[in-house]
Design a protein that fits this description.
The chain has about 450 residues and is α/β, with parallel strands linked by helices. It has 2 domains: about 5-20 and about 280-439, glycerate kinase, domain 1, CATH 3.40.1480.10; about 25-275, Rossmann fold (3-Layer(aba) Sandwich). It contains 16 helices and 15 strands. Strand 1 and strand 2 (about 40-45) form a beta hairpin. Helix 1 (about 5-25) packs across helix 11 (about 280-290) and helix 7 (about 170-180) crosses helix 9 (about 225-235). The radius of gyration is 22 Å and the shape is globular. The protein starts with a helix and ends with a strand.
């Protein structure tokens, strides 16, 4: 096998590892493992709920996996006893009977995001102590369902605020800290509205495992962040000049309202279960890489690092490991950050992959980086795969890797090479996977 054929084979292998992880970390499989219903008794992990004992069971499903999670719940419970609202960012192929659907915006809110929040808040406000509210939460919920805490903040101002946050280079937990305090639907405020109903939240998580209240900006959980954190984060990232007047004015007056904390009565009858997270995707990718004959190491320590720093770190780790193993696979879960200064077409995964391409030119190394939601930034790709031949193949095709990197315009580059990872929206969202192979 010549070098070109080996490179192609390893790019295919990286793709296969990623595809396997996606399939095995599916929402349907997670619900089958952790949720079931027999004779009207719903079991979620260690909890039991007799659905017949409630006057009403209301389901609120928010996030990129909104439809998929309702489908999976209906598969276990049946649709006869379920009703509620689904707010997602994609048009589902079908709708579950008994549910109202909204198509909110992502990564910035749209008019449907506002309508969805209004409908959800109204439905929750009608619940009593005899009701059970089941919240199904997944990533993307922060923008898909949104209602500003202050009526002075228009939709255009909201979008401008989100854009400033997303492009700031701040980690997702810091972005969501500010989102929570600007919102009537985040940071535990949906739980407050649902009180005094019994509440159950099932989480398909796209946030670090130790900060579950960052998922969809924690609409049903006590908020561990404070208004003081918001003011500190805004100053740290120089956000005030980028905010529209209505948002900036709240910060300048220090007029943000505090979110509900763990001692709030809203949480006395609330339970939260993570049924799927990035850890599941990492474990399944590891299993696939081992079957492909690689010695596997996992290193998630660069979560929320700048993409350039993460690329340097992971490639250094891979080279160290390859001194001791003939075929090694380094898997890294979580997300890297990109501070966008020019508006091309791409996303953090393609930016990370392109940064790696120049650093591994001529080496027997393959790097894949992709999002489990199937969408990377403002492109239609989930991510990209690169190897030691990427730069030379690009030059042969008249492509300039450095210019694409500087312009944050990685997607057209990878599309021409055939190295974009195109899955389409997956109906799932478990953060990103980076798969590095040395051989």
């Amino acid at each position: 096998m010549n070098h070109g054929e080996l490179s192609q084979q390893m790019r295919d292998t990286a793709r296969e590892i990623f595809r396997y992880a996606l399939a095995e970390a599916s929402i349907a499989k997670a619900f089958a493992r952790h949720v079931n219903c027999e004779r009207g008794v719903l079991r979620v992990r260690e909890d039991l709920y007799d659905l017949h004992s409630y006057s009403r069971v209301l389901v609120i499903s928010i996030g990129k996996a909104g439809h998929t999670m309702v489908e999976a719940l209906a598969q276990q419970v049946g649709t006869a006893s379920l009703e509620g609202i689904v707010a997602s960012s994609v048009e589902p192929p079908s709708q579950v009977r008994g549910f109202r659907y909204f198509r909110g915006g992502h990564p910035t809110p749209n008019a449907e995001s506002i309508h969805a929040a209004g409908a959800i808040l109204k439905a929750l406000g009608a619940q009593t102590a005899a009701s059970l509210v089941i919240f199904l939460l997944s990533g993307g919920g922060s923008s898909i369902v949104e209602k500003p805490i202050d009526d002075e903040i228009s939709l255009d101002d909201l979008i401008a605020t989100y854009r400033a946050l997303v492009h700031s280079g701040a980690p997702i937990a810091e972005i969501n800290t500010i989102r929570k305090h600007l919102s009537a639907s985040k940071g535990g405020r949906l739980a407050q509205r649902a009180f005094p109903a019994q509440q159950l939240s099932l989480l398909v998580s796209d946030v670090p495992d130790d900060t579950p209240d960052a998922l969809a900006s924690g609409p049903t959980m006590p908020d561990s962040t404070s208004v003081e954190d918001c003011y500190r984060i805004a100053e740290k990232h120089g956000l005030l000049p980028q905010f529209p007047h209505s948002t900036r004015e709240l910060f300048e007056r220090q007029a943000l309202e505090e979110t509900p904390k763990s001692d709030d009565p809203a949480f006395q009858r609330s339970r939260w279960w993570t049924i799927l997270s990035n850890q599941t995707a990492v474990e399944q990718a590891s299993a696939a890489a081992e079957r492909a004959g690689f010695t596997v190491h996992v290193d998630n320590s660069c979560d929320d690092w700048d993409y350039e720093r993460a690329a340097e770190y992971l490639l250094k780790r891979l080279r160290e490991l390859s001194k001791n193993f003939a075929r090694v696979c380094l898997i890294s879960g979580g997300e890297v950050t990109v501070k966008v200064t020019n508006g091309g077409v791409g996303g953090r995964n393609q930016q990370f992959a392109l940064a790696c391409a120049a650093k591994i030119a001529g080496e027997n190394v393959t790097v894949l980086s992709a999002g489990t939601d199937g969408v990377d930034g403002n492109s239609t790709a989930a991510g990209a795969v690169v190897d030691g031949t990427t730069i030379s193949r690009a030059q042969s095709s008249g492509l300039d890797a450095r210019a694409a990197l500087e312009k944050f315009d990685a997607y057209p580059f990878f599309r021409v090479l055939g190295d974009a990872i195109e899955t389409g929206p997956t109906g799932n969202n478990l953060r990103d996977l980076r798969i590095l192979l040395a051989y």
